[in-house]
């Protein structure tokens, strides 16, 4: 089956010029969910350890509820995560949520009424603001932050893949 998938992927690259179709998604051995994938901090504080158990040393403490994190590995009840700066380690799964959030990476971004740069600006978000994702189209995400809801370009956000579509 893998060989067949690889052949189909190679054919799609040749025809469409799109390598994303060729790669099989790696699945987590515990959850069978895609790796890597984005989640957020459920807790206001979470210890990030050097390895997947309570006996491992704490390297970091994430102190921000809703902070977007990327899961890169799974082991039992533990998930290896990283933040937008690449910092991370192992965290207990109970401290994580499937709620999708993003963090603003540009100095200042506009939230638009529609996924169109010429549409009305509803609000502006500064670098470091964490916003919940309502939905994402190909190049835009509809975000909720500070009581405002609007569309922002994906290129200014960390916590969502460039071609990812969320409904």
Automatic annotation (TrEMBL):
PROSITE patterns: PROKAR_LIPOPROTEIN. Coiled coil: none annotated. It holds the Pfam family SH3_4. Keywords: Aminoacyl-tRNA synthetase, Ligase, Signal. Residues 1-22 form the signal peptide. The keyword Transmembrane helix does not apply. GO terms for molecular function: aminoacyl-tRNA ligase activity. This is Aspartyl-trna synthetase. It comes from Roseovarius atlanticus.
């Amino acid at each position: 089956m893998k060989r067949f998938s690889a052949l189909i992927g190679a054919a799609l690259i040749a025809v469409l010029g799109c390598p994303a179709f060729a790669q099989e998604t790696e699945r987590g051995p515990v959850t069978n969910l895609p790796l890597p994938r984005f989640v957020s901090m459920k807790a206001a504080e979470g210890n990030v350890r050097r390895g997947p158990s309570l006996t491992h040393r704490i390297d970091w403490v994430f102190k921000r509820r809703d902070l977007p994190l990327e899961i890169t590995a799974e082991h039992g009840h533990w998930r290896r995560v990283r933040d937008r700066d690449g910092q991370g380690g192992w965290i207990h799964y109970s401290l994580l949520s499937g709620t999708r959030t993003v963090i603003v990476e540009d100095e200042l971004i506009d939230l638009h009424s529609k996924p169109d740069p010429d549409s009305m600006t509803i609000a502006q978000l500064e670098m470091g603001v964490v916003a919940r994702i309502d939905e994402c189209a190909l190049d835009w995400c509809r975000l909720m932050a500070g009581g405002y809801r609007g569309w922002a370009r994906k290129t200014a956000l960390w916590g969502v893949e460039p071609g990812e579509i969320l409904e």
